[in-house]
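Posting this for the archive.
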Amino acid sequence: MSSLKKYFLYSSIVVFIGLLLVFSSILFLSKNLPSIEQLENYDPDLVTRIYSSDGKVLDELFVQKRVFTELNEIPEHMQQAVVSSEDRKFYDHWGLSLRSVARAIMINTLSLSYRQGFSTLTQQLARNLYKSVGFEDSILRKVKEVITAIQIERTYTKDEILEMYLNTVHFGHGTYGVEAATKRFFGKESKLLSIDESALLVGLLPAPASYSPIHHPNRSLRRRNTVLRLMRDQNFINKIQYQEARSKDLESVQEFTKRGSAPYFTEYVRRLLEKEDTELNINIYRDGLKIFTTLDSRLQEIAEDAVLKTVIDDQNRLNKRLFNNREEFENLAYLTIYPEDSIKMMLQGKDILYKDLRAKLLVQSAFVALDPNTGGILAMVGGRPDYHDQYNRAVQAKRQPGSVFKPFVYTTAINNGYPVTEQLLNQPVVLNIQNMDGTWVKWKPQNYDGSTGGLTTFREGLRKSMNLISVRMVQQDIAPAEQVKQTAKRMGINTDIRAVDAIALGTSEVFPMEMVAAYSALSNKGVYSKPFAITKIEDRYGNVIKDYFPERSEVLSEETAYLMTNMMQTVMDRGTGGSARWKYKFNRPAAGKTGTTQGWSDAWFVGFTPQIAAGCWFGVDDFKVPLGPGQDGSKAALPAWARFMKAAHDTLEMPIEKFEKPSGIIDFTICNITKKVPRPACPVEKEIYKEGTEPTQNCKLHRTI
């Protein structure tokens, strides 16, 4: 055999063995790579969004922030920026650009280092989508990328590949995909991106941390301008567009992520979802769910504004008291540690108060608004809007309700067959109270204004919030303590209510949301609607995973609910809630009750119309720190309620509705002094009664001569 033939044979064998090794290596490496089926069923982690009832995105839940957007929703100049910067031959190659490979080999060989990569956009996508490809710099990784890229090119069209790339690539600061990045850096949707903003985002791709516009603005600008130049050179933009975009600064970049709307409510929803995820087989941080809620973003904004205005007024009054009481201020503000002038400026809103002083020096609040007919939460504020924290006082803070608990006492009495004209002596009583150490002491409660008097009706007692009347109702078994406890429990109060005489004064702690829900049963004709926040959960494809519906139960007769509502309307029209009418101009039919605890530690107002039930609490987190003398429910809490209710009804353009009188309630003419059947000489008035409880005895005071 000639030497030429031998050489040809040996060469063929070497080539064959080489091809065999290459083919075997490709087969071996392909075993650990995604199959065509995996490619076609690609299912990335997506952001879960929480929506208000009026369609606003309240917040997002995610591990890696990733929001899927269809290619036709992404501006064309964003797509062009990616192609021009990352893979100019994207529409011409089949997953691997031989020209890029050759250029990279030449540059890296001449420089004796790794200076030039040759990854196509499809190869980058392969690396981003599949962990099995790997991220380490090695020849094996490149081979894996190429194999997977070719599979992707065989499976998808170029537009589909570009769409996946733009939805999966990392832009830094925890964002994945152009939509998430646009929200993070510019606070808007990707379809609103300008040319310079698109170039800025694309400029991040090679090294998001190094080119961050937040941490490295100068580098970011230079990199953005490079992308703009590439777009110009490839005729995606003209010279005028290039010059205009290049002249823009980073003014539109937001340094901090905008906080979601209704933060206390969305955290409440998140905790509810965490209890559901196992049962529903969902992952709220990865599945791209749509969570539809009951909250109305318009009412939420009104609530936050009303609470903030009121809390600032309350804070100013607390400041004035503390600044005039040197000893108390020194103890609460740790003036031996912190400078007095600094603390005063912080309390006046000129700076943020130190965290370890907030529990003792800041006036806090809780506010809840419900739809009384369904129980849907319309608005929720769990603390000061200007000092957001993780403690949701609307559902986590147990505070003494004071006089807002009295309607449970009166409701029990009405249920026991007593009319609203039942009269009791407005005279001092003595209560046995158990201290924290278990000892018992005698306590003589007083009315708010210190007054006493003669016989007083239920209506008058509730209108003026007379402590002595409500205590006598309990002591004389008109509304026994145990029955009052059961009434409150039936109406949705789940905290430990102590069945003692002092129950009449609201000394057992409650949650604000439960108080509002209980009051809403009066508005809803005796039907209690359990508060709920979520209406529906959908998966990323729009399929309904679960619907939520109101849970209702009848807890009072329609007649009892109406009588209580009518008495509480008197509180609004002529009693302790009257300033809502004359000062805040809220003149719709409404019922409500003020509440103040002993020592001025808690101020409440809870009330309702036929359409909305709402309530608020104001106080300092440390209950030992009082708001101060005179800071009762009508002064410290009612303003927030009145501001909200007026604006809420006006904004939603709700029709004026009256509370509907049941057929079992009758109007009856009585003597306005004795509350008996009138004689001809009696001064008379109209009163309402549950049929069968109207007076039958004649007035003995105004006998005719």
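The chain has 26 helices and 21 strands. Confidence is low (pLDDT under 50) at residues 101-118, 132-138.
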